[in-house]
């Protein structure tokens, strides 16, 4: 019997006694309804055909199966369900083999676990990453993975969401056979024929006994304690552990039913909405007009100007991505410090056993220290990270203009400065762009790509290509004071200051913000970054500050005492003997009281909910202004900025998604209430008013192409 269904997303072809079932659902063979139906039909076809002795499931293209089709979540269920398909595969009277050559993730691995045997090629990736989407494996994965690879290892895999390489998966017992090469169908056919020739039996995962139940339950208990500590508000991790317990305690069918019930709870949770929004938003931010209009310029050799905190971090990011890097500093002493800053990162990895001396030497062989701009004649892309001072930066760009070859991309890592003005210092503003990394630049995922007026589209496309090569999450931003992230941060930080002066302590505010899901509150962040940085900015801006705007002086009083945070042992908190976790400081509270008294403020109580309503309203309102002005292309760009660069809890989807889930009318009503206290600060964004009037949400703007 040969195929009569070549147009289908699941195609079958009889090759001798083996029915080859191949999935063609680009880009990643997600298990949409048509794939599920096709797989079920293939199992039924094989059962009905005496000529078929075995089924071989393979994926076409780059993936085996990347999991359930995430776009279907939240929509009405369409039969057959994935659990039904997996159960049918497992129950097949004919031998079923899964041959995996690429990602087999989530539902994809659940299909493979339902097969009777598994083969993997070198590029296979196996995992149960549902936890990253606020879910748990919902097609038998929580019951089958523990039976195949052991309860503890399976639960750790599900909790971490990690992808295992083919080798690691084989070592964990998830894969029966590893094969070299890249022809998955040929390898799968050879393996399946070998199994048939050897008389290998149908081997159903459901029939595997978990033998050491007591030991497994003890391990799960330990994992539950650890997870409760680490999960920070996440819903699905503890449910995953419950499912694993069910795998140990209950017969298979009941375990499946338990998994189903908990999967549905996860599916219905707002966390699933937030996390899936984040998943797609992170992929959308690279879809920008310039990338559609122009191809990136080629770049092979990079230069970084400045070897301080950021210059060194960016150098490490570029070295880690395999690029040769020239670092230019002011003088011999500064470049020695710059090199030491880079080496410090690798030395720390060596100390942790994650890098060898030889590995470090191989990386550092691509690093060239220099004190001369004349060494930059053949570089393709330069990133400047010198002091945050417009005149210093202009002078650097004049030099770059003098020495760099035509077509070299010239980027600045400025946090706030006007990039149009920096570009104007050169005779080639079409080549000048902002690349705003976050500290530590070799670790933080966010890269704001700031697009000045005169830059050409291919330079923007090049910046996005660089982000991909450095494994960063790029977000396109327009030029304004602070771009997307720091501009919005300045506003909600101001809201936090107002709440403090009006009655909440900095410690109550930090606690409320942590309770929302952030790892740290705003005053802890100030102490970590160093209070002197913000103080210098405030002093610089004092002359241009609107005299009518409310200004809270508490942080200035603290800095005047030389209390700059962790590095000086005290800031908003006390850090005795170099402690990293701060303790509340009664003297800071006295400063706050004195400032309130000076302004005639009678302090009032704030609940954590009231604190967060104001904090988030300020963030969302400024986010709306940033979108309205075109500084961010879409609300989702604001979401990704805050998730990847500012510690916003990913499971809430970002500030704009969070606002949508609250209801924009409620947010606007709050802002209008606060506006009566302070009309200058709490002016509602026109976009927010417009969306509420039209009954729309921010997400409606994400859909527009
Ligand atoms: N459903 C729908 N679309 C998906 C998808 C999925 N499961 N996985 C990826 N896509 C889409 C992406 O959105 C992207 O679309 P776009 O081109 O329109 O932007 C396209 O496929 C390519 O994806 P990537 O850009 O991420 O491609 P990469 O090659 O970088 O990565 C991957 C491939 C490793 C498979 C990565 O896409 C991935 O991790 N996907 C998600 C895997 C996952 O979480 N699976 C579990 C799903 S939940 C589940 O299975 C529930 C079950 O237990 C019942
Ligand atoms: P830093 O003070 O640690 O380093 C600046 C370095 O630039 C110094 O090593 C200095 O010697 C060098 N330098 C000064 N003038 C130079 C010149 N003409 N030629 C070559 N080198 C020169 O500063 P940091 O924190 O690394 O900041 C650098 C830039 O990155 C600033 O624009 C800052 O706003 C921005 N930035 C900083 C972040 C942070 O968290 N520190 C985050 C994102 C951006």
CATH topology descriptor of the largest domain:
2-enoyl-CoA Hydratase, Chain A, domain 1
Distance between the termini: 46 Å
What's the CATH superfamily of the largest domain, by name? 2-enoyl-CoA Hydratase, Chain A, domain 1
Number of domains: 3
CATH secondary-structure class of the largest domain: Alpha Beta
- Helix/strand structural class: alpha/beta
Q: Any ligands, ions or cofactors bound here, and which?
A: 3-hydroxybutanoyl-coenzyme A, 1,4-dihydronicotinamide adenine dinucleotide
Order the strands across the largest sheet as they lie in space: 12-11-10-13-14-15-16-17
> Given the C-alpha coordinates, what overall shape results?
globular
Number of strands: 19
Number of helices: 30
- Average pLDDT: 96
Biggest sheet details: 8 strands, mixed
List the helices and strands and how they pair.
Blueprint: E1 10-15, E2 18-23, H1 33-48, E3 54-59, H2 82-91, E4 95-100, E5 103-105, H3 107-114, E6 117-120, E7 125-127, H4 141-149, H5 151-160, E8 163-165, H6 166-171, E9 177-178, H7 184-197, H8 213-230, H9 236-249, H10 252-267, H11 270-284, H12 289-293, E10 302-305, H13 309-320, E11 325-328, H14 332-351, H15 357-364, E12 367-370, E13 381-384, H16 390-403, E14 409-412, H17 419-423, E15 432-437, E16 446-451, H18 457-469, E17 473-478, H19 485-502, H20 506-516, H21 522-529, H22 531-541, H23 554-560, E18 573-574, E19 583-584, H24 586-599, H25 608-628, H26 635-645, H27 655-662, H28 664-675, H29 686-694, H30 699-703
Parallel strand pairs: 2-3, 3-4, 4-6, 5-7, 6-9, 10-11, 10-13, 11-12, 13-14, 14-15, 16-17
Antiparallel strand pairs: 1-2, 7-8, 15-16, 18-19
Helix pairs in contact: 1-2, 2-3, 3-4, 4-5, 4-9, 5-8, 5-9, 8-9, 9-10, 11-26, 13-14, 19-25, 20-25, 25-28
């Amino acid at each position: 019997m040969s195929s009569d269904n070549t147009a289908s997303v699941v195609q079958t072809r009889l090759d001798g006694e083996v029915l080859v079932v191949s999935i063609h659902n680009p880009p990643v063979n997600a298990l949409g309804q048509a794939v599920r139906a096709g797989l079920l039909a293939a199992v039924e076809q094989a059962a009905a055909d005496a000529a078929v002795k075995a089924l071989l499931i393979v994926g076409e293209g780059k993936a085996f199966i990347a999991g359930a089709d995430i776009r279907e979540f939240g929509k009405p269920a369409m039969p057959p369900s994935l659990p039904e398909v997996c159960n049918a595969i497992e129950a097949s009277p004919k031998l079923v083999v899964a041959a995996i050559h690429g990602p087999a993730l989530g539902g994809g691995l659940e299909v493979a676990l339902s097969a009777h045997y598994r083969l993997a090629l070198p590029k296979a990736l196996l995992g149960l990453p549902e936890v990253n989407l606020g879910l748990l494996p919902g097609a038998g994965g929580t019951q089958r993975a523990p039976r195949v690879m052991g309860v503890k290892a399976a639960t750790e895999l599900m909790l971490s969401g990690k992808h295992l390489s083919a080798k690691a998966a084989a070592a964990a017992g998830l894969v029966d056979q590893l094969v070299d090469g890249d022809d998955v169908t040929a390898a799968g056919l050879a393996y399946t024929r070998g199994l048939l020739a050897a008389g290998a039996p149908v081997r159903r995962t459901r029939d595997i006994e978990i033998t050491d139940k007591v030991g497994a339950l003890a391990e799960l208990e330990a994992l539950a304690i650890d997870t409760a500590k680490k999960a920070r508000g996440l819903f699905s991790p503890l449910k995953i552990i419950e499912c694993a317990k069910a795998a140990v305690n209950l017969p298979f069918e009941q375990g499946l039913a338990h998994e189903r019930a908990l999967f549905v709870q996860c599916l219905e949770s707002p966390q699933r909405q937030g996390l899936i929004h984040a998943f797609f938003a992170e992929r959308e931010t690279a879809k920008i007009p310039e990338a559609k209009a122009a191809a990136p310029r080629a770049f092979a050799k990079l230069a970084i100007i400045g070897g301080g905190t950021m210059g060194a971090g960016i150098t490490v990011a570029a070295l880690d991505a395999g690029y040769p890097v020239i670092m230019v500093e002011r003088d011999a002493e500064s470049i020695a410090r710059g090199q030491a800053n880079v080496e410090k990162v690798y030395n720390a990895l060596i100390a942790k056993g994650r890098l060898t001396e030889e590995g470090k030497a191989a990386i550092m062989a691509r690093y060239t220290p220099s004190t001369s701009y004349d060494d930059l004649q053949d570089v393709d892309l330069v990133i400047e990270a010198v002091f945050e001072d417009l005149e210093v930066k202009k002078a650097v760009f004049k030099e770059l203009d003098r020495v760099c070859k035509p077509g070299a991309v010239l980027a600045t890592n400025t946090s706030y400065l006007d990039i149009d003005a920096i570009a104007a210092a050169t005779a080639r503003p079409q080549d000048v762009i902002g690349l705003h990394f976050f500290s530590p630049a070799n670790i933080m995922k966010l890269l704001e790509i700031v697009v000045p007026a005169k830059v050409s589209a291919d330079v923007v496309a090049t910046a996005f290509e660089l982000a991909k090569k450095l494994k960063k999450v790029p977000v396109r931003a327009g030029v304004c004071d602070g771009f997307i992230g720091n501009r919005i941060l300045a506003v909600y930080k101001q809201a936090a200051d107002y709440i403090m002066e009006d009655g909440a302590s900095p410690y109550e505010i930090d606690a409320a913000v942590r309770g929302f899901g952030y790892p740290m509150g705003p005053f802890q962040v100030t102490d970590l970054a160093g209070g002197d940085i913000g103080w210098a900015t405030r002093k610089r801006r004092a002359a241009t500050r609107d005299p009518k705007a409310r200004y809270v002086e508490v942080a200035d009083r603290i800095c005047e005492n030389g209390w700059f945070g962790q590095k000086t042992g005290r800031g908003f908190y006390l850090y005795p003997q170099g402690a990293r976790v701060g303790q509340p400081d009664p003297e800071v509270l006295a400063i706050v009281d004195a400032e309130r008294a000076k302004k005639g403020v009678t302090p009032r109580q704030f609940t954590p909910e009231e604190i967060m309503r104001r904090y988030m309203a300020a963030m969302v309102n400024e986010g709306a202004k940033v979108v309205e002005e075109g500084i961010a292309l879409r609300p989702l760009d604001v979401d990704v900025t805050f998730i990847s660069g500012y510690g916003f809890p990913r499971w809430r989807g970002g500030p704009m998604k969070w606002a949508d889930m609250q209801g924009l009318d409620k947010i606007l009503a709050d802002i209008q209430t606060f506006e009566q206290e302070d009309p200058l600060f709490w002016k509602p964004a026109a976009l927010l008013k417009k969306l509420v009037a039209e009954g729309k949400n921010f997400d409606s703007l994400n859909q527009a192409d």
